Amino acid sequence: MACPPEILSALGDPMLPQPFGIKRVRHDTLDTFTLELAPPDGARIATAAPGQFNMLYVFGVGEVPISISSAPNRPMLHTTRAVGTVTRALAELKRGNMVGVRGPFGSSWPIEAARGKDVVIIAGGIGLAPLRGALLELLRRRKDFGRIVLLYGARTSADVLYERELERLRGRGLDLSITVDRAVDAWRGHIGVVTTLIPRAPFNAHNCVVLMCGPEIMMRFATLELQKCGVPEEAIYLSLERNMKCAVGFCGHCQFGSEFICKDGPVLRYDRVARWLAIDEL
Amino acid sequence: MNTLESIIAKHPFTKDLNPRFLHLLNECATFERFGADQPIFQESFEADRLYFIERGRVALQNFVPGTGVTTIQTVGPGAALGWSWLYPPYRWHFSAVALEPVEAAGLCGRTLRDRMQENHEFGYEIAMRVSHLLLERLQATRFRLFEMYGVPT
Questions:
Q1: How far B149 CA sits from the closest chain A CA (Å)?
Q2: Is the pLDDT of residue B18 over 70?
Q3: How many other β-carbons are positioned within 10 Å of the β-carbon of residue B122?
């Protein structure tokens, strides 16, 4: 669902970062962390829909798009991995430090379109972060949906994100399967790539919606596996990432075929972008 | 509890298999149970079984000198386990250990090979299914080479 213009206009100047304070920092894995942000003086902020992102500005360093990992109307959380200059700088920030925030931007997961259907969430690595808000919202409205299945793949058992929370969510009607490429410690769960979980996952391929986020190579192969199971292309939604700069569709940095990932995405229906995904360096 | 015949007939490996071939599978199969942590087969030993997993999960393992035993993959209900029985020198390339109580139909590899030789139509069907297993494992191995989740999103 693209962000309606009236919401965009209500945000004020979308190019102007608002100062937010860091209320809490949580280290999820060795290189992944979650920031809880709040505006100064408890000012009201725009409600973000699951799947949308904010532009976070580390003063004097730079700005990056980071997906919102909190549920709607809950304290604003961003989970990210320290991999580049800006995200490494974000990882250095402490409680009480300030960052600039622009957003929320972009499209959201099709929660309403999933009513009455099974929902299959497929995530790889840090790709679970943009799906967390959708997962919590689906479970909050548990009766509106059929089965809710999460298939999650991580590099190692030490890289599994939100592990304790996911285990708790099993008790709220989540059918959870986690797989890792390599086991460390006493891992007794699945070992293998996430696509191997798809054929035996409990969902109705002809009446489901798939929400998927992870590295594109994972999403490509997972899509092939879903199609083998009979899931139609129009039931598959991907969250894509490109080099987002302005976040409002002006600069063109994130253009992907006929779409702008920042404005038309990041959540896009697979059949709208399938032909672009196969093109190198697009 | 499912009978041996129903385990074989309902297993994904035999999906769309001509029903007249099912008895060839049934006659060389036994119902097998393994306790948690019990070895199912051992790397480099004679490979003489094709398993249709009905219940429980199995770890495929390799011994890596200097590292020890490493689990490469886990498989669960609905998986077909073992292809080394089909190709000379008929030795397991991996070890398999039950992670939890496992129930499976175990089919005799030597008998299967004989039946495939005698009945080429049956042989073709089984070889196609085993090659599909190989393709799935090859694809999974390729995905891993990409270090998929290591790529930032």
A1: 5
A2: yes
A3: 19
